Amino acid sequence: MFRSVVNRIDSELTETKRPGEVVLTVHGLLAGCRSMRSLADAARQEGYSVMDWGYPSLRGSILHHAAGLSRMLCDLAKRDGVKQIHLVTHSMGGVIARAAILQSRLENRWADKCGRIVMLAPPNSGSRLTRLPLGPFASWFPQLKELSEAPDSFVCRLPNLRRMKVGVIAAQHDFVVDELSTHLVGQRDHATVRTSHQRLTRHPDAIEMTIEFLNTTCLRPAATTVAFETDHIDTVSDAHRRRVHSAAA
C-alpha cells in the first residue's frame, strides 16, 4: 500500500501546478484519513501532490507511530523529484509529525526539502483529555500519558522544530486542547477559528488559511478568526523554552 501511494506521487510530481511539492496529511486521535479529506482536496486543487498518512490512533504510542511516519519522510526526501515536503496535521497528528521530523533528522539531512507544517488544534503543551482518570485502563492508552499537561511529559519535553515553517490554527470552542496549549515556540503565525476541535478540519476559514500558509507562510485570518493576546503567547513561549532546555540537558 505504502509503495503504491509513493509511486502515484512520483507520477504526479511533474504533472501538477507545483511540481515537486508534496503535502502529507496526518489525522488525530479517534479519526482517520477521511477527517482530512477537505484539507487534502483543497491542497490538490492548489496544485500540490498529496499523501494521506493513516495510522491506528487508538493502538500504539506516539513514538511508535512517529517511527512509521519517519520512514515515509525519509523515503520521500531521498527522491530526486521531491523538492519540498509539507505537512498538514490535526490534533495528536501534529505531535506525531514533530516526533517523526526529529526521528528522521529531516531538518539536518534534507534541510533544503523542509517546507511548511500547518498544525490544526495541536496539543503542543498537552491535552485536556489526559485529565480524565483512566485507572486500570491507563496502560491501554499510552498516547494519553505522552500527551499529559505535566511539564515532564513526552509532548512537553519534545524539542521544537528548527527549519520547518510552522503555522498553528486553534479552535475557540475546543474541549480537547486549550488554546494556550496549541502554541509552539518559533511558530510563524497563529490564528483561532470559532469552531470545535473536530469541526476545525472542515471549517472553510481553517481550510483557506491552511492553503494560504502553504503558499506564503502566512495565515491571513478571515473575519471569523479570533485575535490572541500577545502576553499569553509570551507566557507559553517562556514555559516552552524552559521545557526544551530541560529536555536537551
From TrEMBL:
Pfam families: Abhydrolase_6 (PF12697). GO terms for molecular function: hydrolase activity. Keywords: Hydrolase. Residues 23-196 form the AB hydrolase-1 domain. Signal peptide: none annotated. The keyword Membrane does not apply. InterPro entries: AB_hydrolase_1, AB_hydrolase_fold. This is Alpha/beta hydrolase family protein.
